[in-house]
Design a protein that fits this description.
It contains 10 helices and 9 strands. It is of the alpha/beta class and 258 residues long. The protein has one domain: Rossmann fold, CATH 3.40.50. Helix 9 packs across helix 10. It binds adenosine-5'-triphosphate. Adenosine-5'-triphosphate (ATP) binds next to helix 1.
Length: 258
């Protein structure tokens, strides 16, 4: 059996006394990709932020590769691709600068990149086909190019655990396929990947497991067992129409339901 990459036990998060995530428990094995699915406000980003230590749970505990998050971050185990809305795109940095940030954990306090860091940045940019834009200011990128830049930062970090908050939002079909192929390669190398997406149709093509969330975890398990029209309808408070309409969305007839 594979090692546990992310271990979440009984985690509750509240903002100003209002519960956003109630008593979540979850174990993700290394060498697997887990899709995180739920409607707007369901608590997906909150779960990512709790794993990253950006919000402090009121109860419970989270381990990443067996370590509490502050220790996991020191050893470069975990990389996070935030939602685009969380990034200050006016910050005066280039694409290559952002990707180099993925290497900071490997540098000393002066942050002078070495040849390995430069090589990792070069290779990561190549893998997401962004080498041509490496000197462009990040505010001057398209939505899909922004996503690829932060994806490249995560690749450059060479982290064992990847947390990706809606990496396909605003991304065209070809780029989404390229990113999914990269995720599948990382899975083969034993990485643990947790990814939120509103592209329901693509989930079953690359996720081994699925978590359905609606302020608490509604269902979690193998994609074929859990990702059923009935469970999805429940996760979306039956707002997607009847079950045949949910089924057609799963079959890609309505690519982005957000
Ligand atoms: N910093 C915050 N302060 C107060 N409430 C917050 C804060 N961040 C999130 N919330 C609330 O917590 C709940 C969960 O939000 P969260 O961002 O985790 O949802 P989400 O599933 O990621 O949604 P989306 O699909 O829209 O990105 C929402 O009701 C949201 O309004």
């Amino acid at each position: 059996m594979n090692a546990i990459g992310i271990d979440i036990e009984n985690v509750t998060v509240a903002y100003h006394g209002k519960v956003a995530l109630h008593s979540a428990s979850l174990q993700l094995q290394s060498g697997s990709i887990c899709g995180l699915v739920g409607m707007n406000g369901a608590g997906k980003s909150t779960l990512f932020k709790a794993i990253m230590g950006f919000v402090k749970p009121a109860t419970g505990r989270i381990l990443v590769n067996g370590l509490p998050i502050h220790k996991a971050q020191k050893t470069n185990i975990v990389a996070y691709v935030p939602q685009s809305e969380e990034v200050d795109w006016n910050f005066p940095v280039s694409v290559a600068d952002v990707v180099m940030m993925g290497r900071y954990g490997y540098m000393n306090i002066l942050r002078i990149p070495g040849s390995r860091d430069k090589q990792a940045v070069r290779e990561s940019l190549e893998r997401v086909q962004m080498s041509d834009l490496r000197d462009r200011q990040i505010g001057e990128l398209s939505g899909g190019q922004k996503k690829r830049t932060f994806f490249a930062r995560a690749l450059a970090q060479q982290a064992q655990v990847l947390l990706l908050d809606e990496p396909f939002a605003g991304v065209d079909v070809k780029t989404e396929k390229m990113l999914i192929d990269l995720l599948l390669q990382l899975r083969e190398r034993g990485h643990t990947i947790l990814i939120s997406t509103h592209d329901l149709a693509s989930i079953k093509t690359f996720c081994d497991r699925v978590v359905l969330i609606n302020r608490s975890i509604l269902a979690y398990g193998n994609t074929s067992d859990v990702f059923t029209p009935e469970n999805i309808a429940r996760a979306f408070d039956n707002s997607l129409g009847d079950l045949s309409s949910v089924t057609s969305q799963l079959n890609g007839k309505n690519r982005d339901i957000k």
